[in-house]
């Protein structure tokens, strides 16, 4: 065992019992009233902890592959998914055939949360010990947090959704549900997060590491407010947008004022072994920079993640390289000498041509995070045995080479690049049995969201420049030019740049594009764009000659058709009619 995450002591068994006893055809994956009867369970605080751990495990199912959403942006290509769920490409995302499972994942967590909350409330009435009461109150806060972020995912993807806060009494009640306006759901989400922020501790230690904290509640309340502000701005509701930008900034500021350090002080580290890479290895997953993550418990515990399988290659534990960077991402890494962009790479097979994407010299002197995030031609990485257990020699990557002996086998990733970020360089762990927690929110994300909210309200100031400069420092980049980025519009470009580079491979870009309403700017109608590999070969068309409805469908997903068939009161989103 690599380490002992809190939920490993029973959460899985509870989750399995819930799944086995559920009627899988129920509208919203309900939990029967007979499940875990209070006569046999729900007697002690240990029972409550056990049950809440099961909610954590359900929540993990919702968010465990958020990184795939980067494939619906312009900087990452996905060639499919290792779990055969969804098609993550810009012009094909959103249909219920792809993402109906996420609707079910969210409601599974919500149903478990409601079930647990009802039973903890009953348990609180029977327990008088102040210590036990305090623990139960904390568990309620953790559960309400997880219910909140699942409802947030629902309104983000689907808009108005059925909303309920109690265990449903069978299909009759489930079939009576209608779609609640997302504004009302948003208010309830914020209420749950506000409660969590007042109850939970700032941080945990020991066996409780990884549980929801006050910082996580503040961070996600700020994020919900920020997203709502963006949505209202897009609808022309300026006053409401300003109110939520202000609320978002206030929540993020509470975290900033804690003076939490970046990983390894935010220093870049050596050029050939940057600190940024080490942050995405399981042995650093509890660094203070991590605000909230979903927990994994590999190896050999049936609770492992598949980051290696998705990001690695055949030479790293027989992985499959489902996710890969693109030439567009390579072009976003700035020069350490100037802090500005290098000349655009030329997609070419000519390995000696100046600025050719296949010429290793074209990448010299870039942001250190590039070396930590991706490999280009002739960049080396350690090779692991096919079972992932033994570290072998270090060999270079060369796009197009599949021998796996002299060069790293790219295993069908067609972009011309592969990821280094998230790829383990230690043995003893199978490709689908990793211990790495997946980060849902990190400190730089908070800083950048704060900068966005304040910039929107008042424009840039010294505090915002300092925050962005601290993030850029980990890439060994010079500070931003105060003159060049003095306006709101130009400073927003600096924020966007850092979100692209700092958060790539973590599932943020797709959601940023949608809340900023940037789809038509990135892929303008009618011609869209064609994505090529580093050698100039076409990978995919993106909104090429696409109808307007395809653009609309990017912004709001299709309600799963089986939900509407079961309950006609749940109406379909207009772009999917």
TrEMBL record:
Residues spanning the signal sequence: 1-22
Annotated organism of origin: Fibrisoma montanum
Top-level taxon of origin: Bacteria
SUPFAM superfamilies: TPR-like (SSF48452)
Name of the protein: RagB/SusD family nutrient uptake outer membrane protein
InterPro entries: SusD-like_N, SusD_RagB_dom, TPR-like_helical_dom_sf
Pfam families reported in the protein's UniProt record: SusD-like_3, SusD_RagB
Keyword check for Disulfide bond: no
Keywords, ordered alphabetically: Cell outer membrane, Membrane, Signal
Compartments (UniProt record): Cell outer membrane
Record domain SusD-like N-terminal: where: 28-226
One GO CC term on file: cell outer membrane
Similarity section: Belongs to the SusD family.
Keyword Acyltransferase: no
Domain RagB/SusD, first and last residues per copy: 288-576
């Amino acid at each position: 065992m690599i380490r002992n995450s809190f939920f490993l002591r029973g959460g899985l068994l509870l989750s399995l019992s819930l799944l086995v006893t559920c009627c899988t055809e129920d509208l919203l994956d309900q939990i029967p009233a007979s499940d875990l009867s209070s006569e046999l369970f729900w007697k002690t605080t240990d029972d409550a902890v056990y049950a809440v751990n099961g909610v954590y495990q359900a929540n993990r199912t919702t968010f465990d592959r958020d990184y795939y959403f980067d494939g619906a942006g312009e900087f990452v290509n996905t060639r499919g998914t290792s779990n055969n769920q969804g098609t993550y490409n810009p012009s094909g995302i959103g249909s219920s055939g792809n993402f109906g499972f996420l609707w079910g994942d969210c409601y599974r967590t919500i149903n478990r949360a409601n079930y647990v909350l009802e039973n903890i409330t009953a348990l609180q009435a029977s327990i008088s010990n102040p210590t036990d009461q305090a623990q139960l109150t904390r568990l309620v806060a953790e559960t309400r947090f997880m219910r909140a972020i699942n409802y947030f995912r629902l309104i983000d993807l689907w808009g108005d959704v059925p909303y309920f806060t109690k265990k449903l009494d069978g299909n009759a009640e489930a079939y009576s549900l209608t779609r609640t306006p997302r504004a009302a759901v948003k208010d309830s989400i914020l209420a749950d997060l506000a409660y969590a922020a007042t109850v939970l501790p700032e941080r945990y230690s020991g066996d409780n590491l990884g549980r929801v904290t006050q910082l996580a509640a503040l961070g996600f309340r700020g994020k919900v407010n920020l997203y709502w502000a963006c949505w209202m701005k897009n609808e022309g509701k300026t006053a409401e947008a300003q109110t939520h930008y202000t609320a978002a900034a206030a929540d993020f500021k509470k975290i900033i004022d804690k003076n939490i350090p970046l990983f390894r002080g935010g220093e870049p580290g050596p050029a050939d072994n940057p600190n940024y890479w080490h942050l995405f290895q399981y042995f650093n997953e509890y660094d203070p920079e991590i605000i909230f993550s979903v927990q994994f418990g590999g190896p050999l515990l049936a609770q492992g993640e598949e980051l290696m399988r998705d990001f690695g290659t055949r030479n790293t534990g027989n992985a499959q390289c489902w996710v890969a960077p693109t030439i567009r991402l390579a072009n976003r890494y700035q020069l350490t000498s100037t802090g500005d962009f290098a000349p655009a790479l030329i997609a070419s097979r000519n390995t000696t041509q100046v600025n050719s994407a296949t010429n290793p010299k074209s990448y010299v002197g870039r942001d250190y995070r590039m070396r930590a995030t991706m490999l280009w031609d002739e960049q080396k990485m350690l090779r692991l045995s096919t079972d992932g257990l033994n570290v072998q020699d270090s060999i270079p990557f060369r796009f197009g080479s599949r021998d796996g002996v002299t060069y790293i086998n790219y295993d069908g990733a067609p972009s011309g690049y592969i990821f280094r970020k998230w790829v383990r360089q230690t043995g003893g762990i199978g490709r689908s049995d990793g211990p790495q927690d997946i980060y849902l929110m990190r400190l730089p994300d908070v800083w950048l969201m704060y900068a966005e909210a304040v910039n929107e309200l008042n424009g840039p100031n010294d505090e915002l420049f300092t925050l962005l400069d601290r993030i850029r420092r980990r890439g060994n980049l010079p500070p931003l030019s105060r003159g060049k980025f003095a306006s709101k519009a130009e400073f927003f470009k600096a924020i966007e740049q850092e979100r692209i580079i700092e958060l790539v491979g973590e599932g943020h870009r797709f959601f940023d594009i949608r809340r900023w309403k940037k789809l038509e700017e990135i892929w303008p109608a009618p011609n869209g764009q064609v994505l090529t590999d580093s050698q100039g070969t076409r990978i995919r068309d993106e909104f090429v000659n696409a109808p307007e409805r395809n653009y609309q469908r990017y912004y709001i997903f299709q309600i799963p058709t089986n939900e509407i068939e079961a309950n006609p009161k749940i109406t379909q989103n207009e772009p999917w009619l």
